[in-house]
Automatic annotation (TrEMBL):
InterPro entries registered for this protein in UniProt: AmidinoTrfase
Protein name, per record: Inosamine-phosphate amidinotransferase 1
Presence of keyword Transferase: yes
Superkingdom of origin: Bacteria
Active site: D179, H225, C330 (amidino-cysteine intermediate)
Keywords recorded for this protein, A-Z: Transferase
GO molecular function (one): amidinotransferase activity
Amino acid sequence: MSVNAVWSSNDWDPLEEVVLGTAVGFTPPPVDPSLRHFFERPDEAEREKIPSAMLDRVVDEAEEDFHELTAVLESHGVAVRRPERPVAGQQYSSPNWASVAMHALMPRDCLSVIGDMLIEVPMPMRSRYFEVFPFRDLLREYFDSGARWLSAPKPKLPDSTYIYESNASVVADDEPLFDAANLLRCGYDIFFNVSSTGNRRGATWLQRTLGPDFTVHEMSICADHVDTTLHILRPGLLLANASQMTPEMIPSPLRSWKTLWVTDIEDDGFAFDWPRASRWVGMNLLALGPDRVLVPSTQVSLMRQLEQAGVEPVPVRFRHGRSLGGGLHCCSLDIRRRGELARYF
């Protein structure tokens, strides 16, 4: 077993250390081409005015939920780390565009852990360009403890990056682009979702960076991140969104495994004019181990389904996944899991 400060190669080995994001400093970003590309927002999104009292309440309640989540994780022996708290409304620009930093809420999107390697990924949304910076003190600490730390090439993100076709959006292949939540990690096999948040050049960059021992499998199973569509609960057992997927869409190496099909999910609602995530953010789970997962406490039918498959659900309060755009899996990054880097096929 590994004793590295950073070690994780899948989403199910026993969890020992995790980074949780923060809702503090959450700032609705400008409606530029990259935002229009990523969110299924209404035409009147530009006119949204969120009252400061409402925004403060959502942020405060989200932080309350993180506080409770920390207590639950620590009760299961998991060390919890948090980033620096960003200042709301931080502005920045490149030679070709300007934006406002949105948050430091979702380390799962801006960072990936593969073995003992921490990877800063090339995110395609402009308001998330420097999202990794509040996590940098932690990255430096992990690096000093022996982890490998690297960053993908910083993208230029011109308007031509964002392509709309047949009511769907993709990102151009001019430079490597992907969010870390496009990845489904399974030991030496990485499943990479080519979508509005990841392109084939990004998959190629990741394959060459990881080297020939790894295999990066391209797939296109949903519009953006995979963690509201497909989870590997443990080897041999999948959790899949029946509204998004069919059996034929499951990547071929995984098709022989048993699949729990989620046919419905509770809608937790949203606080602002329009949601930043679909109701399927309710199946955004964080595994404590191969037989135990954290689940939003409102998802009663999902918890019963997991129990019937021999997976113990641990309910936790998580009120604002749709308002802020991320669930339990999005807002966490497993730094260390107790297990081996293995092959499962």
